[in-house]
Amino acid sequence: MKLANETLAALPDGIERPRYDRARLTPGIVHIGLGNFHRAHQAWYLHRLMQQGQALDWAIIGAGVRPYDAAMRERLLAQDCLTTLVELDPAGTTVEVTGAMIDYLPIVEGNGPLIAAMSDKAIRIVGLTITEGGYYLDPNTGGFDTTHPDIVFDAANPDTPRTAFGAMVAALRARRAAGHPPFTALCCDNLQGNGAILRACVVGLARLSDPALAEWIDAQGAFPNSMVDCIVPATSPELVAKVRALGIDDASPVSHENFRQWVIEDDFCMGRPAWEDVGATMTDDVHAYEAMKIRILNGGHQLLANAGEILSAPTIADCMADPDIAGFFRAVQTAEIVPCVHPVPGMTPLAYVDLIVTRFANPEIRDSTRRVAFDGSSRHAGFLLPILREGLAAGRSVAGLALAEALWARMCEGTREDGSVIEPNDPNWDVLNDAARRARHDPQVWLREAGIYGDLADAPRFAAPFAEALTALWSEGCRATLRRHAGG
Q: Which residues belong to any copy of the Mannitol dehydrogenase N-terminal domain (predicted)?
């Protein structure tokens, strides 16, 4: 059955579907970046509120700023922006159809439709899931990079910008001119202090072309920090077939684990849905939660994925079933990551590691190592290197994190130990692949990627164990190197 508004009532028994009248929904949120994660996470929370008869004036309008977003737009509009969510758990599978999203804006050069939608006073929140690498951060300072060509372009062409931030600034300019208040800008990407980073990007870009507007945004706008957590694999042909077998023709279904967490700083300038009524945590201090999740979960993903690629482990669950990869994961988490994480209410760092081990080992979640390893340039820089820097500053060993970086360098050489080819998997793949090939014989070549490592190449307590680890990976093999580090 083709998924659409008119077929909702005829869905097979046992499949939850919207109980609210979708024709009554009105928009309150524009969300930029309509990937699987948003549909399984933020949109799900809103859908749950709507199921209770709440938040009917907070429906989502989807948006994107890159040409590749057009394919997702076409698929979702063809099914009235409905999404089939499949919860995968060893105890059983549950399926529901969600309907909090009601439209998807055209993807056009200059972002005119997006700017017009965000200029509407009815839009009170603009959310973003554009990945960690989409924030134009300087690798050395962590601040907003005003020299990036996209940012230079947007500053010179504020009415026809290329970036999400440029579109937001243009819409905020229109709102100010019309006498409307600014919207709340809600970052949902895995960046520590993500609201503060988003503020720096939007205000920093506005300041390049209109300092008075920048001051207005900074003073009147809101940029709450948030932490999001749910494992959401990429949609596979097998998932599409699974959903069809259940009786639903959905071109873009989403699978997810039986765990969600959303911690949000309660700082909104034009109101918000009552997300706390459906399980979100509203707080004045997101930092400890996000540090625990980003460092143990997201950092842990990078510990697993590069080793998994080298050893041909297809999924994260397969990595956790491999005693050598799992032993390395546990050793680095316990010795080097946990000391850099503070407890949160109801959860210690070690207990969180145990929780993550259980979640990662879920065999029903076919989360590919390739997906998790994608864009290591951003993920290593965002998730592992800050821990490494803290460990160096505290005088602790960083041998495990150095090995993690060596595993990444070994992976970027482009071949697995079984001889198969690792296809390009990073926006900077050509540069990384060239450096990785040369680093096989001179490990320092890899650390001279200043855009990633900055001054870490000059830190002997990191550079020396890195060189030793990369040499061992090539001379002794990945498995023996992992075992030795884990004490096996």
A: 28-276
Phi, psi (5° rounding) for residue 383?
-105, -40
Distance separating alpha carbons of residues 409 and 298, to the nearest angstrom: 18
Report yes or no: 457 and 448 within 8 Å, Cβ to Cβ: yes
Secondary-structure percent of the chain, ordered helix, strand, coil, rounded to 5:
50, 15, 35
Length of the chain counted residue by residue:
488
- For 201-331, where are the E strands, in sequence order? 226-229, 254-256, 261-265, 281-283
What SS3 state is found at 55?
coil
> 287-486 falls under which CATH superfamily?
N-(1-d-carboxylethyl)-l-norvaline Dehydrogenase; domain 2 (1.10.1040.10)
Rounded Cα distance, 290 and 287, in Å: 5
Helix (H, G, I), strand (E, B) or coil at 18: coil
Q: How confident is the model at residue 414 (pLDDT cuts 50, 70, 90)?
A: very high
Helix then strand count (H, E) for the chain reads: 23, 11
pLDDT at 65: 93
The first and second tokens of residue 488, run together, are 């096996």
Residue 374's pLDDT band, with cuts at 50, 70 and 90, is: very high
* Three-state secondary structure of 444-468: HHHHCCHHHHHHHHHCHHHHHHHHH
Whose tokens are 């910008």? That residue is: 161
CATH code of 5-283, in short, is: 3.40.50.720
- pLDDT at position 30 is 98
Angle at 387 between CA 386 and CA 389, to 5 degrees: 65
**Rounded to whole angstroms, how far apart are CA atoms 478 and 151?**
41
Phi-psi group of 31: left, alpha or beta (phi > 0 → left; psi -120 to 50 → alpha; rest → beta): beta
C-beta atoms surrounding 152 within 10 Å: 12
Mean pLDDT of the chain: 96
Average pLDDT over residues 454-461: 94
Domain boundaries, the chain: 5-283, 287-486
Checking if the pLDDT of 139 tops 80, the result is no
